[in-house]
Specification:
The chain folds into two domains: 163 residues, D-amino Acid Aminotransferase, Chain A, domain 1; 164 residues, D-amino Acid Aminotransferase, subunit A, domain 2 (D-amino Acid Aminotransferase, Chain A, domain 2), CATH 3.20.10. Helix content is 23%, strand content 27%. The protein has seven helices and 18 strands. It is globular and about 60 Å long. The chain starts with 8 loop residues before the first strand and ends with a strand. 41% of the residues are buried. Bound molecules: 2-OXO-4-methylpentanoic acid.
Length: 357
């Protein structure tokens, strides 16, 4: 990637820090934010100067298009610190590319790569103390773009705000995860926005996920909208199934998010000699595998969750429990990925990126 190091960034430092008030051993995901945030406005046809300022509320006209038409996209990334206190990111170029893929689909102007990296690195350097070295800890990075132009005409805005906020994180799902295979509601449709990380994709899942929660399931695994027969993704994670020794996951498409953790697992599996099939997965195949005992594992993969074991699923009103596996693929991939991310093992794929402070 090419980065213009001379790019100007206006930095206004906070006079105070909240860091001493934070209990880093008891963080619930995404509730605590660091002292600073990054903002960059788009107007007159171009992205303006990047500002880093004390974290706080932003003000917008009530008619801003983001409030009415949901013209908003986001990303999720994580920063880690190695034993020498250097800051590292995991495949950040993938997040930048995906942000712009989402931008194009939502008719939002793309955010330049050099500004993305320069701004993010300046913000991370300032917030370095918030990156904990403890196992399982990271600093979750949330870049996002919202349509700020005022006016309720239903058309793409001419003004936007790109922001980055940072949140110290431990695990995303701390309890047990059981899922419901969707048989009524849908997350995405062919030709829609399922592949984009846009705000509405998530809002649309809240109601059916709440119904699932009320019935005792933590997540919904979405199926294709037309037949509800093929398993797609879990909304906050891509999903993998282990049948015997084989790993199976759905192919990405315009309905499924192209997850960075997902593609890292596929590469790791290939290099470890684990057979992995990327193909359509029918709910009936998984039901049958659960019945005949060959379904050994299910897990979700995503930036926030990393790799999260799924202990059981419900399909057609029937609950299925997966066997307890001592050292399964889920823990194998989680350990592999987190040890690469935290620089505790060799990064033979060149996935880690050292932040220039
Ligand atoms: C992520 O894994 O970074 C996501 O964006 C999922 C989010 C809902 C926490």
């Amino acid at each position: 990637m090419s980065v213009d190091n001379k790019m100007a960034i206006q930095i206004q430092k906070s006079d105070t820090t909240k860091i001493s008030e934070i209990d880093f051993n008891n963080l619930s995901f995404g509730n605590v934010f660091t002292d600073h945030m990054l903002e960059c406005d788009y107007r007159d046809g171009k992205w303006q100067t990047i500002h880093i300022r004390p974290y706080g509320p932003i003000s917008m006209d009530p008619s801003a298009k983001v409030f009415h038409y949901g013209q908003a996209i986001f990303e999720g990334m994580k920063a880690y610190k190695d034993t020498e206190d250097a800051i590292w990111l995991f495949r950040p170029d993938e997040n930048h590319k995906r942000l712009n893929k989402s931008a194009v689909r939502l008719a939002i102007p793309e955010f330049p790569e050099d500004s993305f990296f320069k701004g993010l690195e300046a913000l991370l350097s300032l917030e370095k103390d918030w990156i904990q070295k403890k196992e399982g800890s990271s600093l979750y990075i949330r870049p996002f773009v919202i349509a700020t132009e005022k006016g309720v005409s239903a058309s793409p805005a001419k003004e936007y705000k790109f922001m980055i906020i940072l949140s110290p994180a431990q695990s995303y799902y701390s309890g047990e995860v059981r899922v419901l295979f969707a048989d009524k509601y849908s997350r995405s449709a062919s030709g829609g926005v399922g592949f984009a990380k846009c705000a509405g994709n998530y809002a649309g899942q809240f109601y059916p996920t709440k119904l699932a929660n009320d019935s005792g399931y933590q997540q919904v695994v979405w199926t294709d909208a037309s037949t509800h027969e093929n398993l797609e993704e879990a909304g906050t994670m891509n999903v993998f199934f282990r049948i015997g020794d084989k790993l199976v996951t759905a192919p990405t498409s315009d309905r499924i998010l192209d997850g960075v953790t997902r593609k890292s697992i596929l590469t790791l599996a290939a290099s470890e000699g684990i057979v992995c099939e990327v193909r359509t997965i029918s709910v009936y195949e998984i039901e049958e595998a659960a019945k005949n005992g060959t379904l050994l594992e299910m897990f979700g993969a995503g930036t926030a969750a990393v790799v999260n074991p799924i202990l059981g699923f419900s399909f057609n009103g029937q609950d299925y429990e997966l066997p307890t596996i001592e050292s399964g693929y889920a823990s194998f991939f989680k350990d592999k990925i987190t040890s690469i991310q935290t620089k505790n093992s060799e990064d033979k794929f060149g996935w880690t990126y050292k932040v220039r402070e």
